[in-house]
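2024-03-11 09:14:02 INFO worker-7 job=invfold-0412 stage=load source=structure_tokens
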């Protein structure tokens, strides 16, 4: 909320355009202490908006907020209320922060802006009145702005913003003084303004006008010559055409009196100064090297060779203007129209006239511009169109239909919407991959180039390059963000900068004094685009920001519908894409994502609007509903679809899980974990297994109705880690609590596979048949029982049980499981060809469904039968892949099986030493499964002592698991290279 007009009594005034000053009832009040003064300043700078507690604490303690930070802040606010005395009600406590209620005349910076705005609306009809208003505004600055508080980052950013405001007021005051015949009263001010920034052309031109208006034309021309020489010497640039025009007017005597000026007709919204062309200063050559955009520049040249209108579209800060200027610099006849300073669509023709250096004294301005353009074939660049779309669209349409020799390159955060338009989207700079030299990647190269300007020194070390790579990743490869971050190296070390990037919207500010105000901070850049949205579009944008990895179309539309937007959900989403606030990706399923900087802004706005809790609740409902759908569909023939959704949505589900746990929402946590049993059992999504075990350890779970199922899922996770003791304990604890068949089934499943690994085959069959009675034959229980019977030697009963399970199976994973069991049975029977066919079918079905665990176990079986058939190289290759897969996922239970099968093959190849080492290590491992035909591996969880493999009982001590893996890898490579 902006500063309002109402001023509750008693009067309060805060002055920030100088040393911080508080007045209550007209009397100054001393506010001691830097922290308290900083709180007052931060609340005042918000101009009536709520400042969140988190923002205040981050500002006061930028390195690390102390544990007592919230209490310390509360104490400072309490004391500040004491200073306000009878006006204490002005300092309001809001739900998530504090607000200082000030009227427009009660904050000097708001007053300065209001005086400037009023002067601009009256300067044409009443120059003397505008002069008085601007004198008053200029007088509000009392000295260095908040000099004792500039170590606070948000305050330092505001200080730089107010320096720009003062410069704007100064320029307007000088220009109006010349127009009002008061040039002699501001000569000293004009000279001081020019001296403060000798390369700023508008200040030089104003000084020249003031000198000429007071009869000092030779001095005015001398100032122009000195500026021209200085600009070339220091930057290599030439002045704009405006300097040539002004020099001609002075030489001709046009500046002899204010009444002799010949002006461009003034229009609202164009930042014109009397007697000056309205167009902004456009350098003939950019001041910095363009990095990483050669391909885009070349592509634009190719497009412009065949297209009349090309619009370069992308989010704020992605570098559209810089790329367009590079194209312009490499082209022949070019006119560049910069629309960022233009606020009124009706002023576009006048800005174009100024860009063409055209003085239009009478008649239609656009028609005059079109006549010039038709006689001057070439390229017209129109930059920053997004806030004037309707006006730009009409202007461009007129030019295209009239001037056949003109091509147009526009830049905008959204397309113009013309039929002739070819839209080219500019993406952020490429980011470094782990296997690349970071210094050769454009995003890192840009950071290094800009960093050298503020901190020259030796080339970065490899460790520093890794830090820079992380920084540019976290900044999405956005050129503006990277340049602002590199500029902060004048204050921070690389490590300090990286540690503060979670506050990048405010940290990365304070660009060069000449920078476009929209690009002074990341927040200002995003704010510019945000303010161009409708309220419905803003609201959808805010609520989409909670999804860390974007959403699909259906989720976006359901979210929009749930928010009760007045506009069509699909159309609202499309507008966000057009406005470059959301990116649409069409690789596979359509996906809508935000750049991280935009998402951070959205989260800030969500909190400021008081919608963060509601948005969190919507996300949790989405996560619970989605996981429920995944769990249901994975039991059907549509399992591959559910697997794809699960993997695609995992980043969002991860965020939802942390939100669930942070809020202590036990019902939601239970629902998510139980629904994701298939992910725990058959997929390499290890973090979901961690969720299950984390929840099982929560004391609050004890009395929950879903506790049994959670314990079963957690037991499955423990089994995959090879922790039989914990898997057994969790399963049996669950069965003791069991009150429903679903929960019992989960626990029985885990007991059966754990007992299978230990070789307790009778127990396996008992558990499996009990599970079938609870949930039916379509699951894997009959297949597990079949494996137990097969390993126990009863192959006929094994086939009968597995065939029964296969007949009932529906999902690809359960069909794969049945095929794998059939392969195991045929392998034990010595039917290697049919076993291979079954294994291959199991692998194919598992890959289709995403059941990576089944791919792994079936691959081990496949290469065992290939090894028996003498296809040694195929088997070795397969074992290598299977071993790496299980090692990567920490599944030592099945890794030991793969290693034992490899040992059998190595022994047949005569490579006895690694084979003996593997067997001995497996014999001593409590998580190694039993081997059919031999005694089970010792189970230390039941107190059994390790027993050495017969072949290695007298061998030397067994090395650790990493050494066993390395020995296996070396043996595979050695035997693959054998003659």
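2024-03-11 09:14:09 INFO worker-7 stage=emit residues=979
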């Amino acid at each position: 909320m902006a500063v309002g007009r109402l001023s509750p009594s008693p009067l309060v005034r805060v002055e920030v355009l100088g040393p911080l000053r508080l007045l209550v009832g007209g009397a100054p009040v001393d506010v001691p202490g830097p922290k308290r003064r900083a709180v007052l300043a931060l609340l005042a700078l918000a101009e009536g908006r709520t400042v969140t507690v988190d923002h205040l604490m981050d500002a006061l303690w930028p390195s690390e907020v102390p544990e007592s930070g919230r209490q310390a802040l509360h104490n400072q606010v309490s004391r500040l209320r004491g200073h306000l005395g009878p006006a204490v009600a002005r300092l309001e406590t809001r739900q998530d922060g504090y607000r200082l209620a000030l009227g427009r005349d009660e904050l000097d910076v708001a007053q300065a802006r209001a005086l400037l705005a009023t002067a601009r609306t009256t300067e044409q009809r009443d120059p003397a009145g505008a002069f008085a208003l601007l004198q008053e505004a200029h007088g509000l600055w009392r000295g260095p702005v908040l000099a004792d508080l500039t170590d606070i980052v948000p305050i330092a950013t505001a200080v730089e913003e107010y320096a720009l405001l003062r410069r704007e007021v100064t320029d307007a005051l000088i220009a109006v003084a010349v127009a009002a015949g008061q040039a002699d009263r501001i000569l000293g001010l004009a000279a001081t303004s020019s001296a403060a920034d000798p390369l700023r052309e508008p200040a030089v031109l104003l000084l020249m006008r003031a000198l000429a208006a007071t009869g000092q034309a030779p001095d005015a021309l001398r100032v122009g010559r000195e500026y021209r020489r200085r600009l070339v010497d220091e930057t290599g640039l030439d002045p704009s055409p405006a300097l040539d025009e002004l020099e001609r007017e002075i030489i001709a005597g046009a500046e002899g009196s204010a009444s002799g000026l010949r002006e461009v007709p003034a229009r609202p919204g164009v930042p014109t100064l009397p007697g000056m062309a309205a167009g902004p200063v456009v350098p003939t050559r950019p001041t910095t090297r363009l990095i990483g955009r050669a391909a885009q520049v070349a592509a634009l040249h190719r497009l412009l060779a065949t297209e009349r209108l090309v619009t370069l579209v992308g989010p704020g800060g992605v570098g559209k203007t810089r790329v367009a200027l590079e194209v312009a610099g490499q082209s022949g006849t070019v006119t560049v129209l910069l629309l960022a300073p233009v606020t009124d669509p009706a002023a576009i023709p006048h800005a174009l006239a100024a860009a063409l250096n055209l003085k239009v004294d009478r008649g239609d301005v656009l028609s005059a511009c079109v006549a010039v353009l038709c006689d001057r074939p070439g390229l017209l660049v129109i930059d920053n169109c997004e806030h004037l779309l309707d006006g730009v669209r009409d202007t461009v349409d007129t030019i295209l239909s009239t001037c056949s020799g003109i091509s147009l390159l526009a830049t905008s955060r959204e397309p113009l919407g013309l039929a002739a338009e070819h839209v080219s989207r500019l993406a952020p700079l490429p980011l470094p991959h782990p296997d690349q030299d970071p210094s050769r990647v454009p995003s890192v190269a840009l950071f290094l180039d800009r960093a050298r300007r503020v901190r020259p020194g030796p080339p970065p070390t490899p460790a520093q390059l890794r830090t820079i790579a992380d920084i540019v990743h976290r900044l999405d490869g956005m050129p503006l963000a990277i340049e602002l971050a590199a500029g902060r190296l004048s204050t921070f070390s690389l490590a300090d900068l990286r540690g503060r990037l979670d506050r990048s919207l405010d940290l990365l500010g304070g660009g060069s004094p000449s920078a476009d105000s929209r690009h002074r901070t990341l927040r200002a850049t995003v704010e510019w685009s945000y303010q161009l949205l409708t309220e419905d579009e803003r609201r959808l944008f805010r609520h989409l920001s909670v999804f860390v990895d974007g959403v699909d179309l259906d989720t976006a539309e359901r979210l929009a519908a749930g928010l009760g937007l007045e506009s069509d959900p699909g159309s609202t989403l499309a507008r966000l894409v057009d406005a470059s606030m959301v990116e649409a990706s069409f690789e596979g399923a359509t996906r809508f994502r935000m750049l991280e900087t935009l998402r951070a802004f959205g989260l800030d706005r969500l909190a400021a609007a008081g919608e963060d809790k509601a948005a969190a609740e919507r996300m949790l409902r989405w996560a619970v509903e989605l996981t429920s759908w995944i769990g249901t569909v994975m039991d059907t023939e549509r399992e591959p679809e559910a697997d794809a959704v699960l993997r695609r949505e995992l980043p969002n589900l991860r965020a939802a899980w942390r939100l669930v746990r942070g809020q202590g929402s036990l019902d939601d946590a239970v629902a998510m974990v139980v629904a994701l049993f298939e992910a725990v059992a058959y997929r390499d999504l290890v973090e979901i297994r961690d969720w299950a075990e984390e929840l099982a350890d929560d004391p609050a779970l004890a009395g929950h109705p879903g506790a049994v199922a959670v314990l079963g899922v957690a037991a499955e996770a423990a089994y995959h880690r090879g922790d039989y003791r914990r898997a057994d304990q969790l399963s049996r604890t669950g069965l003791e609590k069991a009150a429903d068949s679903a929960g019992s089934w989960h626990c029985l499943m885990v007991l059966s596979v754990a007992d299978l690994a230990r070789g307790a085959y009778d127990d396996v069959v008992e558990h499996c048949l009990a599970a079938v009675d609870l949930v039916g034959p379509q699951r894997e229980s009959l297949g597990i029982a079949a494996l137990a019977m097969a390993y126990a030697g009863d192959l006929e009963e094994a086939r009968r049980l597995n065939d029964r399970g296969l007949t009932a199976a529906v999902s690809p994973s359960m069909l794969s499981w049945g095929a794998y069991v059939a392969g195991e049975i045929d392998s034990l029977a010595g039917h290697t060809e049919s076993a291979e066919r079954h294994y291959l079918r199991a692998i194919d079905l598992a890959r289709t469904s995403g059941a990576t665990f089944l791919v792994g176990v079936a691959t081990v079986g496949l290469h065992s039968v290939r090894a028996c058939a003498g296809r040694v190289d195929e088997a070795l290759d397969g074992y290598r892949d299977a071993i790496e897969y299980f090692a990567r996922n920490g599944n030592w239970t099945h890794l030991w099986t793969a290693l034992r099968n490899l040992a059998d093959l190595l022994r047949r190849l005569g490579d006895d030493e690694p084979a003996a080492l593997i067997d001995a290590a497996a014999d001593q491992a409590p998580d190694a499964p039993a081997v059919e035909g031999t005694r089970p591996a010792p189970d230390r969880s039941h107190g059994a002592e390790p027993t050495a493999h017969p072949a290695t009982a007298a061998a030397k001590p067994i090395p650790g698991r990493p050494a066993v893996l390395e020995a296996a890898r070396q043996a595979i490579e050695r035997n693959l290279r054998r003659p």
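2024-03-11 09:14:09 INFO worker-7 stage=report msg="Residues 1-8, 254-284, 510-520, 932-955 have pLDDT under 50 and may be disordered."
2024-03-11 09:14:10 INFO worker-7 job finished
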